[in-house]
Every structure is written in structure tokens, then in C-alpha cells.
Specification:
With 176 residues, the chain is mostly helical. The chain is built from six helices and no strands. The longest helix is centred in the middle third of the chain and has 32 residues.
């Protein structure tokens, strides 16, 4: 029963925040009420499932309900504005290859680079193995996110730094 109440609180919280963001709710106090409702939702999840799982469930529930509000809004937008596919630009092989190379650079190569750089950093840190593993678990996704944002925001001529960072890290790992 607490889980259902927590889900409803998460739905209400994201509804309040989304409504204020879209300008559907005029009161400025709605933002504070929305965030307080998020905290209530996380507290209810923590009470129902324990602190460790409760926080995870609370954060995931807020994210999923935010996607729900976005999907509802997108469906309403599509119904109001039908798509005229005849006006879309024709896709070409060059466009596909450009998109594929951007995908490979932004997702795959940045992931490899972040893991390799994280391995180099964890080798440099002294201390127990558990501390180094924890550092790797925290640093690798952070570096990956930073690298992805940079790869997508940087001009194409500057993206060479990602494979170079991967190569340097791989060479460092190969020579202990």
C-alpha cells in the first residue's frame, strides 16, 4: 500500500513540476510543493522497501512518471499537428554515414575512452581494492557522460581527442 501511495506521490509531483514548467499552473509555490512531494514519495518508498531500495525506487519512479507526462504531451501535440512527410528532406547515404559516425563517436568511443581512463586512474590510486573499485564505479559513468556531451557539442575537428585519449590510456595500461 505504501508503494502505491509513493507512486501516486511521484506522479503528482512530476505533474506539478511539469505543469508549472509548461505554464499550465501559474502559482510559483507549485515548484516547492512539487519537490516536497518528490521527497514524500522517496520517503514512502524508503519506508516500504528500506533506505537503499527506497531511494532507488523513488528516483526511478520520478523519472518514469516524468516520461509519462512527456509522452502524454507528445501524443496531444501529434494529434493537433499532423506530420506532413512529403516536406521531410530526403535522406542520403552521406547523411546516414554522418549520423552513424556521430553515434559511434558519442556512444561507443566515449565509453571505451572513459573506461580506459578510469582504469588508469584507479591504478594510480593507492589503497584497498574495494576503494579503487568504488572509485571506478563512480568515475567511469561520470567521465562517459562528460565525454558524450563534449563529443556532441565540440566541432568535428576537435573530436580526434577521444580516440587519442583511448590510445594513450590503452598504452599506459599495456606498460605497467
Amino acid at each position: 500500500m505504501l508503494t502505491l501511495a509513493a507512486l501516486l506521490c511521484a506522479l503528482a509531483a512530476t505533474g506539478l513540476l511539469y505543469g508549472r514548467w509548461k505554464g499550465l499552473i501559474a502559482s510559483r509555490w507549485v515548484v516547492g510543493a512539487g519537490w516536497i512531494t518528490v521527497l514524500i514519495s522517496c520517503t514512502l518508498f524508503a519506508t516500504a522497501w528500506g533506505v537503499e531500495f527506497g531511494v532507488i525506487y523513488g528516483v526511478c519512479a520520478v523519472a518514469i512518471t516524468a516520461w509519462l507526462w512527456t509522452a502524454i504531451e507528445a501524443e496531444a501535440y501529434v494529434q493537433k499537428h499532423p506530420v506532413d512527410r512529403a516536406r521531410w528532406p530526403r535522406s542520403s547515404v552521406a547523411t546516414f554515414l554522418s549520423a552513424a559516425s556521430t553515434f559511434v563517436m558519442a556512444i561507443l568511443l566515449t565509453g571505451v575512452a572513459s573506461v580506459l581512463v578510469t582504469l588508469v586512474l584507479t591504478r594510480l590510486v593507492s589503497g584497498p581494492t574495494v576503494d579503487r573499485m568504488t572509485l571506478a564505479v563512480l568515475v567511469a559513468p561520470t567521465l562517459w557522460g562528460i565525454a558524450m556531451v563534449w563529443a556532441l557539442a565540440a566541432p568535428r575537428t576537435a573530436r580526434w581527442a577521444i580516440p587519442v585519449a583511448s590510445g594513450v590510456a590503452a598504452l599506459t595500461l599495456a606498460n605497467p
